[in-house]
Fold this sequence. Notes:
It is a single chain. The protein has 109 residues and is α+β, with helices and mostly antiparallel strands. It is built from 3 helices and 5 strands, in the order H-H-H-E-E-E-E-E. Strand 3 (90-93) and strand 4 form a beta hairpin. The chain is elongated, with a radius of gyration of 24 Å.
Amino acid sequence: MVKERPYMSKETRAKQFSPFAALTGLDERTDAAGFIPDERILLASESLEELDRAARGLCKGDHIRIRFYHRGRYIEKSGRVSKYDTINRTIILDEERIHMDDIVSIHMM
């Protein structure tokens, strides 16, 4: 005699396959569709000069905390300065290149 399985709703049935995730990255993409980026902060000329002075005073190995615009969000990161590139106006912080136009604050630690 064949035993019948109990009724399973579509929602419950779908949940059993969710850990499989055949389309990796799909969740991130669908979340990004509703993504609203942060509005960029425009610094006053005095703040820009202060930021530029702080950047020029950086030395390799300095431990800093930096706030910058990245992919539509402001993020804060701390780490060691690998290099300050005056030609390209970038700070390399633990292997990450951050352009001066994206930075809103630099603090020595």
